[in-house]
Design goal:
The chain is of the alpha/beta class and 362 residues long. It has eight helices and 17 strands. A six-stranded antiparallel beta sheet has the order 9-8-11-6-7-10. It has a six-stranded parallel beta sheet with strand order 15-14-13-12-16-17, sandwiched between helices. The chain has a five-stranded mixed beta sheet with strand order 2-1-5-3-4. FE2/S2 (inorganic) cluster binds next to loops.
C-alpha cells in the first residue's frame, strides 16, 4: 500500500515539475526581446522579435502585399533579406525562383524576426497606407462581376494607372478568418477620394464577402497602392488586352489617357465567352470620343447567337488579325497566367519588343 502511495506522490511531483517547465518555456520561447530592423540601409526600427517579418513591418505601418493573408501560398510578400533572416524554410522554396533564392529574397510572412535583421524593399512601399472607406455604390455588371466604389471621404489616395489595392475581408457568418485580397483599381487617378474595383465571384472568402455580404453604406478597409504594372510614357501605339476583371487596370489606363489628352493609337482586345460576359460597354464606347484613335475589339470564344457580328475566338487570334508589324507598339495585359502567356507569344510573333510588354497575371 505504501509503495502505491509513494508512486502516486512521485508521479504527481514529476507531472507538476513538467507542467511548470512547459509554462516557463512557453513564456520564454518565442520571446526574442528587442531587435533592430534596418530597411534600405538608412531606416532603423527597434521592434519586438518573435513575429513574422510581414507582421513586424505591418506593426510599423509598412505594408507589404500579402494576398493570402500570410499563409505562404500567394508569393506576393517577397522581400530581400540581407542579414539576419535565418535559413530559408521549406514553406518558402516552392514560391521562390532560383534567381530569387540567390538574391536573398524571402517570403516575409514565413521569415521570423529573431535577431537584428537587415532588409531591402522598394521605396514606394513607404507610400502605402491603410484607408477606411464607405461603400458608395455597388453594381452587378455580369452574373459574376460586381463594380464597387469605395469613398475615402476627406482622405486622398495617390496611385498610378494600373496599380492595385488590397481589400480586407473581415470574418463573417460561416467564416472566422480575416483575409486581404488584391484588386486592381478601375477608376481614374484624378479621382483621389474614391476607387472603383471590379470583383468577380469565385466562391473564395473575399469574393463571398463582397458578393454576398457587403452592401452600400458599409465600412471597408483597404491598403495600397501596390504593383509595378502601370502605364509608361511613350509615343508609339498601344495594345491593351484582358478578360473578365482584367478589364479593371485597363479602364484606369484608358481614363488616364483621356484625362491627359494622350493621343496614342489604342487597340483594346477583350476576351469573353458570350455576349452576357461583356460589360461597361457604354463607358468603353465613350473612349471612342475621348481618345483620338481608339478601337475596341471584343472577341467571344463561345457565342453561338447570330446577333453577334464581332470577332469570334480568343484574343491571340484577334491580335494576329489586327496587327501587322508591331515593332513600335507597347502592350498592357491583365488576366489569367495562361491567357497572358498565350497573348505574349502572339505579340512576340508580331515583333513587339518583350521589354515593352507589361502584364499583370492574377
Ligand atoms: S503573404 Fe502570401 S505568401 Fe506570404
Amino acid at each position: 500500500m505504501n509503495t502505491i502511495i509513494t508512486t502516486i506522490i512521485v508521479v504527481s511531483c514529476i507531472t507538476a515539475v513538467l507542467a511548470a517547465l512547459l509554462t516557463i518555456s512557453s513564456r520564454t520561447i518565442g520571446n526574442y526581446g528587442e531587435v533592430v530592423l534596418t530597411i534600405n540601409d538608412d531606416k532603423e526600427y527597434v521592434v519586438n522579435g518573435g513575429s513574422s517579418l510581414l507582421d513586424t513591418l505591418r506593426s510599423e505601418r509598412i505594408f507589404i502585399p500579402s494576398a493570402c493573408g500570410g499563409k505562404g501560398s500567394c508569393g506576393y510578400c517577397k522581400v530581400k533579406v540581407i542579414e539576419g533572416g535565418g535559413p530559408v524554410l521549406a514553406t518558402e522554396k516552392p514560391l521562390l525562383t532560383k534567381e530569387e533564392l540567390e538574391d536573398s529574397v524571402r517570403l516575409s510572412c514565413q521569415c521570423k524576426v529573431k535577431q537584428n535583421i537587415k532588409i531591402s524593399i522598394p521605396e514606394e512601399l513607404f507610400n502605402v497606407r491603410e484607408y477606411s472607406a464607405v461603400v458608395e455604390r455597388t453594381e452587378q455588371l455580369t452574373p459574376t462581376i460586381k463594380l464597387l466604389r469605395f469613398n475615402f471621404g476627406n482622405e486622398e489616395i495617390s496611385f498610378k494607372p494600373g496599380q492595385y489595392i488590397q481589400l480586407k475581408a473581415p470574418a463573417y457568418e460561416g467564416n472566422d478568418e480575416e483575409v486581404y485580397r488584391a484588386y486592381s483599381i478601375a477608376s481614374s487617378v484624378t479621382d483621389k477620394h474614391a476607387v472603383e474595383l471590379l470583383i468577380g465571384y469565385t466562391g473564395g472568402i473575399a469574393t463571398t464577402y463582397v458578393h454576398h455580404h457587403l452592401k452600400e453604406g458599409d465600412d471597408v478597409h483597404v491598403n495600397g497602392p501596390y504593383g509595378d504594372f502601370y502605364y509608361h510614357e511613350d509615343d508609339g501605339p498601344i495594345i491593351l488586352a484582358g478578360a473578365g476583371t482584367g478589364m479593371a487596370p485597363i479602364m484606369s489606363i484608358l481614363q488616364f489617357m483621356a484625362d491627359n489628352n494622350i493621343n496614342r493609337k489604342v487597340l483594346f482586345f477583350f476576351g469573353a465567352r458570350t455576349m452576357k460576359d461583356l460589360f461597361l460597354l457604354d463607358k468603353i464606347k465613350g473612349f471612342e470620343e475621348k481618345l483620338n484613335d481608339f478601337k475596341f475589339v471584343p472577341t467571344l470564344s463561345r457565342e453561338e447567337s447570330e446577333e453577334w457580328h464581332g470577332e469570334k475566338g480568343r484574343v491571340p487570334a484577334a491580335i494576329d488579325k489586327y496587327i501587322e508589324k508591331g515593332e513600335n507598339y507597347s502592350a498592357y495585359l491583365c488576366g489569367s497566367p495562361a491567357m497572358i502567356d498565350s497573348i505574349v507569344q502572339a505579340l512576340l510573333l508580331k515583333d513587339i519588343p518583350s521589354e515593352k510588354i507589361y502584364y499583370d497575371k492574377f
